Please model this.
Amino acid sequence: MSDADFMQLALAQARQAAEAGEVPVGAVLVRQGQVIATGRNAPIDTLDPTAHAEMHALRAAAHALGNYRLDECELYVTLEPCAMCSGAMLHARLKRVVFGAPDPKTGAAGSVIDLFANPRLNHQTQVQGGVLADECGAVLQGFFRGRRDSQRQQSQAAHPLRDDALRTPESAFASLPGYPWAPNYISDLPVLAGLRMHYLDEGPRALRQAQDDRVTWLCLHGNPAWSYLYRKMIPVFLAAGHRVVAPDLIGFGKSDKPKKDSFHSFTLHRQILLEFVERLELNNIVLVVQDWGGLLGLTLPMATPERYKGLLVMNTTLATGDVPLSPGFLAWREMCARNPEFDVARLLARGNPHLSAEECAAYNAPFPDRGHRAALRAFPPMVPASEDAEGAAVSCEARSFWQERWSGRALMVLGAQDPVLGEPVMRELQALIRGCGEPLILPQAGHFVQEHGEEIADRAVAYFR
Model:
């Protein structure tokens, strides 16, 4: 029998593992052309982290031969072995190892490390990879595709879609560059009334209020962005050992999108965020805001000031209605009214020439058609422009809070190229925030400051430490 024939036998074991709900990896162990042992993945069934297909095959072969030395044997496995299994193969003195698909995450036969090529080890085992690689890889891909589909179905069942809303298909968010985090959903906040809200929640979940060395970064996006905007800052916060929570406002990102523009209001979105912070029991918060993330977010701490310890504020404003809106914002609002179907990706590309086409396209992902864009149309006219406009009164209360009662620290970062909420607007905001020092000015950054997020996050971690 050929290598391909023996690999087909290993594939049969892999398929049995899949039927049992295990990751489909299979192995056969051959001596002088005869199969003497087989194995398939079974860590879940056996509650044993060492129960990989190769380990089962090695153990069975040793029992069959009455010797843990397997120096005349060859092992065929459908996936490149990990470090644990590779070490066992070397201890067993295997003559040869043949694998199918490479494993770019944990492979120890060349993909991540190559234990078999280490000349300092006292035994050398021959290795050959790529035998029926496509077929072996297809079995794994099919298994994980099915598991993702099942998880999506469970999510749909747990969060049924309201008749008056749309939900962007999960496929629209596949393979977004720099956005590897698992989604979280909530739909039982009173104000949501069943709408599904998406958020990222990464890092240690149980941060106590007294733990001043670790914080929860609550990252709020604006219009027309979503939590993807924070992908360059999140890794820095996580590397510091902190928690990061980044919700998608209703109508944006992976959150549900009500069909009618009239659904959206300042009061509604503020209430959603207030209930969200309470439900997740967030404490030791550094509030991270920009654009509408600031218009709404800057009104949150006065409701529960004990939850907040810091503010990282970027290109935003407090719209109190008694101060004229900036010419840049009025121009933006007029553009949105004239061109409600504007290309979000093109907007991002124009102000951020360093972004790849794929990164810009990710901003379009939540809005596949006009029906999904109600929030994009509704938000520009929602900014309070007069004292009797909705949101103006609570923004005035927030202004007093930041001037008189805020006791935390504040760091301002300013994208100098922003034509909408640039330096004049931010200087006015700086004067309103008690204890806010000279801003960090990024000469190359525009409105979407977070696209230069590594530098900002590094500075913020040090500042709020």
